[in-house]
Amino acid sequence: MPTLGFLTGFCGAGLVPFDPQVVLLKLDVKLQTPTPTGPPSANADPWVSQTPRNPTNALSQTTLVKNCIAGHQGSSPTPIFATVAALAKGTELLAHELTLANAEIRTLRQANKALSKRCRAKKTRVC
After folding, report:
1. In which domain, by residue range, is 97 found?
2. What is the mean pLDDT of the chain?
3. Which of 9, 18, 56, 84 has the highest CB neighbour count under 10 A?
4. Within 13 A of 49's CA, how many CA atoms are on the CB side?
5. Same domain, 22 and 75
6. Could you tell me which residues come within 8 angstroms of residue 50 by beta carbon, excluding any fewer than 6 positions away?
């Protein structure tokens, strides 16, 4: 039987053909239940009103504003006004950054177009 010779050749070289049952039998598995993380603690600080510096912060700030407005029941609206002012300032900053980035992209595209045009131009040789 050539199959047995084939297998003994591998075993003699220290190479054992893949057998899933043998691998599973050699595993020492100990099942454990992961510890639950639980709900966040009551003393955890909620999102604080601040000027957003990126889109993720802007979304968190928007959620905070919505929650402040939803929870507002006859109390002073000053915290809501401060939060809205910070959100407006952050949105303005992001808009300015976007305008500058778009201008830079436009300039780089024009430079890239000019450079690729020069590279494609016919090259003359002097012999």
Report:
1. 52-126
2. 76
3. 84
4. 16
5. no
6. 57, 61, 86
